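chain below, 97 aa
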Amino acid sequence: MKALVFQHNLAREAASAIGGHLDPRAFVSRFAAVRLEEVGGVVKHAIEHYFDFVSRGLDLTPVITHRFPLERWDKAVLAVKNSRRTGAVKVLLEPAR
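prediction:
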């Protein structure tokens, strides 16, 4: 249930940030459960390492298994929740263009 609440809050926070500056690191401090990992001798929240990798050019496109428009965040959450059935590995929420 915690993951579902986290993802709901994440989607709500992202939706409120559309049109303004969206800093994904804010989600780490506000909603994410603590999961520290060490990469290259640096210990910090796992998602912060992922943001660093992406900012250095890591292409995550090959691991995205599902894409949903932001307004369908509820279906995205269910895809993750039921990943054994849906095959969801990484789910992308896309804002309206």
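The longest strand covers residues 64-69. The mean pLDDT is 76.
thats it, cya
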